[in-house]
UniProtKB/TrEMBL annotation:
Residues 60-138 form the RRM domain. This is RRM domain-containing protein. The keyword RNA-binding applies. Keywords: RNA-binding. Pfam families: RRM_1.
Amino acid sequence: QNASSGTTGEPSATRWVSKRVQGGSSGTAYPGDRGASSRGGGSGGGPYAGKNNDMRRDEATVRVTNLPEETQEQDLRDLFTPFGSLNRVYLAKDKTSNTSKGFAFITFNEKKDAQKAIECVSGFGYDHLILKVEWANKPQNQ
């Protein structure tokens, strides 16, 4: 679909180009992904079964904004997997055009991995845009 950019597909100091954009594989590693699946957890509702674990999952979720329209779920998996195991990737898409709405939520299995992703990816050049990565649920004073 898109022309190859001639880069390696690995994150560099200033820019990352997905393998899909380079003309590589466009397959999805987890077809039909809808929440918890076989990766990272056993049976019985995945690694975060129960109310307390739902809270834990929310604590390890980051929001990524300023994504290009061409972004696919697999691109996000490729970008964020080096920081730790992913529990869920949700890419918001337009229902009619099926293109990215420019934001996504990435849930890691560990909060420390999400923190590292925020530190490393926020401000990172992605295709022609600068990504913003922050906690999905900002801490609230209770």
